[in-house]
């Protein structure tokens, strides 16, 4: 079978005012009809740039500096914009990451579909409407007759992504480029969308380039995979082979860092590829740590009947106000020194629980007892705030961009008047040193650091008051997988050596399995079950938990370098 | 990470900072915009002319001893028929050198402009921050007041404030406080756009996690607003302040032209134009023309600088 899309030695440059940035450096890959070709790599690897180059959607001043792109043996690179426009959509189409923004909210689904069909195919209006109907039915939208005349806002996220796929199929393209098509969706919907893409590729013999950073998606969906690192293709081949027997050291390190759903490891193996892994020094920190002597038999937190409502519709008259119940009568304990996990899909209320415990939201009902003392009522909570700290999800917004790093790290200790002057400066330097950034990092501003480094700054800030309790709200969901492994290892070290108690919020089940001692499952604001992590993963009791676990990626064929010894130990 | 860091001394640190600024994005945008550079030169020339007026002005228009009524209505560049004295830009009816009155008039215009913008900025930024961060009733009240004020033309609001202030002050002090009343009037008519922009930016920043991190450690609302949010909403404020400066200078000139602004004893550019327009049709055009040109050059170049700054700070237009 001959390749339908053939990218050879593609080089894409972005001239900036100081230098020319090479985003893609001599990349080659081919896609065959009916094949799903995965393109995987960490952020900045150039995988999306390849997709944009094929679609001729490179943002200015980006340009193709070398190499060719062939579609069905015709060279399509280097053509002018008008020619590309006719190709785009008719022979190649694209599925974007965010279904909320890739549909025009002002037009009905019917209008958007038929417009695309009549633009690219010479059919009558009636035929176009019929095709639109068939496509919608084909992508699995129930009652297409009714749905066709609805607007995008009447569809849920997953349904919208199905519509986007239908839109991509309108012109009967030969190649579809799917750029992170499921990243914005919940796991349960992600699986359905990937299945749909899989089926459609087979059925219509369309070649698909699936761009993703998620090894689980690659393992479950693709036929072949190309691994990219810093603009270069490092390895390409059949998915099973690349994931099971990686040749290139970068691929090996990447695969080793993927959290395993089926086994709990002591630490993530960090196979250093280019010396990026920076060490984390825990011993000195642990020596100077004021460990609280507490009765470890009693739980640290006793939470009962916790409820939170958000006002949805304002009104002067109380009875007309409408509320969304985000957390509904949730009760659990957190024991001393454990890592307590909360999992659930988006909207399940897990972050809201964390925010109430952190004191960022006021609970509408229920009590939170910390060491037997209530922290929900009024009164000064300064003593409590000193004991808890939080690590946030988005490292790009959790640090004030206008503050120097040393000021950011010093702020909590300064506010609580724990340290000042020289002692404070010394503590800040020490903490930055411990998290592997070095004291000189204190003189810089956050924008000079990468996402993983910023998360280390967050950790340093959280440790400045020597807290006893750490809340981690999706601490790694914005990070690349190898950075995620580093950060999770740091958190584990901290928890063990400093005898911290930790609340760990995540939607990522394999990560939760690696991190947590006990796990609470939440759904629609309610607690489904709370159990020991290993027991929960081995034999879930509730139906909802079972269905969640079933959606975990099956990473059976993954290489086990660096992991084997830990499993046996 | 392993490199040994040696702290630079104070002087080196400053040199490094200046170099970083020159190589920064803003300086780059400046060096690549001829309009910005020309405007900047014009502004610097005019402002330094105003600041150095006592040193460089050939005459002191406020010292009656140096005035000679015989010099009245001397045309630019030609010697006076009676005294033989020559003036670059001519003289007005009382024999005052137009060039000198322009230099001194600009002092008043710029003082009023800067002070009014500063006042409007302080009020607007404070209220905008509070409205954006507190939300609820506080926000509703502040923003509705702003909306109401927006429905009146700024010049009308300024005249209203000016009129009220005048009514409350005894006649003998009126000339002395006229300038301060002008500043108050223009400043109070100007805070709304600062408040609106800062409120919008504050709403965005408040949702970011660094604000939550500060709330988590128990920082008070005031501390969060000043220390965390304010530095992050300042760049649009800078743009509005520049454009407002041009508007404030024009507003001052308008009020003075209408006779409700700077008194003839302390003439601003607007007062000079008002004096000059009486002689426009009797042939003494220069008394009006040169102050008007100066006002135009000042307002235009400040405005162009503001426009450039807005584009340079807006990443979408780059």
What does this structure look like?
Chain A has 21 helices and 20 strands. In chain A, strand 9 (224-229) and strand 10 (232-238) form a beta hairpin. A six-stranded mixed sheet of chain A has the order 6-7-8-3-9-10, sandwiched between helices. Chain A is globular and about 75 Å long. In chain A, helix 4 packs across helix 6 (157-169), helix 14 (405-415) runs parallel beside helix 16 (451-463) and helix 15 (421-434) crosses helix 16. With 318 residues, chain B is mainly alpha-helical. Chain B is 70% helix and 0% strand. The longest helix of chain B has 37 residues, at 98-134. Chain B is globular, with a radius of gyration of 24 Å. The A-B interface holds A 17, 278, 358-360, 381-382, 385, 388-390, 392-394, 397-403, 411-412, 415-416, 436-440, 443, 458, 461, 465 and B 1-3, 5, 28, 208-210, 212-219, 228, 231-232.
Shape of chain A: globular
Instruction: Specify the helix fraction band of chain B.
Output: over 70%
State the share of residues found in helices of chain A, binned by percent: 25-40%
Main sheet summary of chain A:
6 strands, mixed
> What are the segments of chain A in which pLDDT stays under 50 over at least 5 consecutive residues?
none
Tell me the fraction of residues in β-strands of chain A, as a range. 15-25%
From the structure provided, what is the oligomeric state, counting identical versus distinct chains?
heterodimer
What is the count of helical runs of chain B? Answer: 13
Query: N- to C-terminal separation of chain A?
Result: 47 Å
Series of secondary-structure elements of chain B, N-terminal to C-terminal: HHHHHHHHHHHHH
Average pLDDT reading of chain A:
85
State the low-pLDDT regions of chain B, or none.
Answer: 1-6
**Alpha-carbon distance between the termini of chain B?**
33 Å
Number of strands of chain B: 0
